[in-house]
Design a protein that fits this description.
Distance between the termini: 12 Å
């Protein structure tokens, strides 16, 4: 096995400024924006009336992944998440594969979230708005983690308030039919699993907490607490909102919706609140984008330190304590992607790459003992990854192979 290249001199470290509350908030900022406003329609199209079953399966896999990630993060409190865990527990190739999968998968997620902002703010100019959002948040992240955390607090508060309003309006005043939640004859095992894989896109936000491990105070205590708290809150919110929207719209209407929560509020007779929901969706997507860019830049930093990516990206700003070059590089790539990609294609591709990332996280946790949860998580990740839409599987597997070839060429040259 190729040995990691030893860096010349000590690497600059990030500043530990985040407590439990900020860590939980950053995780929530990523999850709430990604899931509720984006992933429900394609999941409903795949699962039909089995949507809630798919949501439950995604939740089980997410719980296993979160538990494994929390155990590993407590032992290895560094930036990089599973890139670090895989390298330490399974070998450098598996760590590299996890890091590569995370960077490319979450870059697609960033593009999807930026486009979501565009679709809700100015649909006819969605790509231009998306690029502008990426540029603005990259500039904010450049100035340090504390400002990003403060903005995320405000975003999460707004999003939770809007989601609470949606649930109250639908369940209190809407044309709710409990029969729309029931399981019909249209479901199939493949469709439900595909929906679970797409909905997993909504749960992956807790990874931001682990990838920010080098910026968390008392990480061995804070990270294992923050991950399950953030995931539990997101699970409750997802479940309540999904039930309300499904009971109002039904799976067929939900599957074709471009703005499902706004449509549900309008169907409940409160069309005057539709602009409020659209603003909430845009704010949620901004929060998710902010947290995603933070996570991708930190994994880029970790891989650059080991020279799997250009070492110049490992620089830490002397004043702001941020990986400023990695932030800029990630921002440029995401802006280009946001200018050209389609949201639904980005979700499928991202889900495949991130499920592979968590499969490696569970395999790493397997080596620590207590193997039931990592085993379920590993099997669940692989099953969901390969039941995604075929174009997503082909594109995701192709990009992973490209990364493996690049790793092999580097090993051969060394």
């Amino acid at each position: 096995m190729m040995q990691p290249m030893t860096p010349v001199g000590p690497e600059p470290e990030l500043h530990r400024r985040l407590g439990t509350f900020d860590a939980v908030t950053i995780g929530l900022g990523s999850m709430l924006g990604a899931g509720i406003f984006v992933a429900l329609p394609p999941a409903a199209a795949a699962a039909g009336t089995g949507l809630l079953i798919g949501l439950g399966i995604a939740a089980v896999v997410a719980y296993c992944n979160a538990t494994s990630s929390a155990r590993l993060a407590a032992r290895y409190p560094q930036s990089g998440g599973t890139y670090v865990y895989g390298s330490e527990r399974l070998g450098e190739f598996w760590g590299y594969t996890a890091g590569w999968s995370f960077v490319v998968g979450k870059t697609a997620s960033c593009a999807a979230m930026a486009l979501t902002v565009g679709y809700y703010v100015w649909p006819s100019q969605s790509h231009a708005v998306a690029v502008a959002a990426v540029v603005a948040l990259t500039a904010l992240n450049y100035t340090g983690i504390q400002k990003s955390a403060l903005l995320t607090r405000a975003i999460v508060a707004v999003v939770l308030a809007v989601l609470a309003m949606v649930v109250v309006v639908i369940l209190g005043f809407g044309d709710v039919d409990i029969g729309r939640i029931g399981i019909g004859t249209d479901i199939s095992a493949g469709g439900v699993l595909q929906a679970a894989g797409l909905l997993f896109f909504a749960f992956a936000g807790y990874a931001r907490i682990a990838t920010l491990g080098e910026e968390v105070r008392d990480p061995t205590r804070t990270i294992p607490r923050a991950i399950p708290i953030a995931l539990t809150i997101a699970l409750v919110v997802y479940g309540v909102v999904a039930v309300a929207v499904l009971a109002e719209l039904g799976s067929d209407t939900l599957a074709s919706a471009t703005a499902p929560l706004a449509d549900a509020v309008a169907a409940a007779g409160f069309s005057t609140l539709e602009p409020v929901v659209r603003v909430g969706a845009a704010v949620a997507a901004l929060g998710s984008l902010l947290a995603l860019v933070l996570g991708v830049s930190r994994t880029t930093l970790a891989m650059s330190r080991d020279r799997h990516l250009p070492h110049a990206l490992a620089a830490v700003h002397p004043r702001f304590g941020s990986p400023h070059r990695a932030e800029i590089a990630v921002g440029v790539v995401v802006a280009v992607a946001a200018a050209v990609v389609d949201v639904r294609a980005a979700i499928g591709f991202s889900s495949f790459a991130v499920l592979l990332y968590y499969a490696i996280a569970n395999a790493s946790a397997w080596t620590l003992g207590a193997r039931v949860i990592p085993g379920v998580g590993l099997a669940g990740c692989l099953l969901l990854a390969f039941t995604l839409p075929l174009p997503s599987v082909i594109a995701g597997a192709g990009v992973v192979v490209v990364g493996a070839v690049a790793y092999g060429l580097r090993a051969w040259r060394i």
